[in-house]
Amino acid sequence: MKPIVAATPDQVRESLRSLAAERGIKLSELSRLLCRDGGYLTGFVWGRGPDRLRSIEGQLLAQFFQVDPRLFGERED
Length: 77
Known about the structure:
By secondary structure, the chain is an all-alpha fold. Helices cover about 50% and strands about 0% of the residues. The protein contains four helices and no strands. It has helices at about 10-25, 25-35, 40-45, 55-65. It is globular, with a radius of gyration of 12 Å.
């Protein structure tokens, strides 16, 4: 069986864009959920922000969307 690995930063960006669009949630609202400036995730998904999300941010987004944390770059130890 092939192990499931964490998503690459580009895959994380695409997952975040897709999940937010599917559910009609603005990236600015998600940024505020993370206690960040409203443009934080917009900058991230368009490559103008951090290279990667912090671990806790990926965990919070995974919880919010009820998806596997590896979609947001979490590594399985």
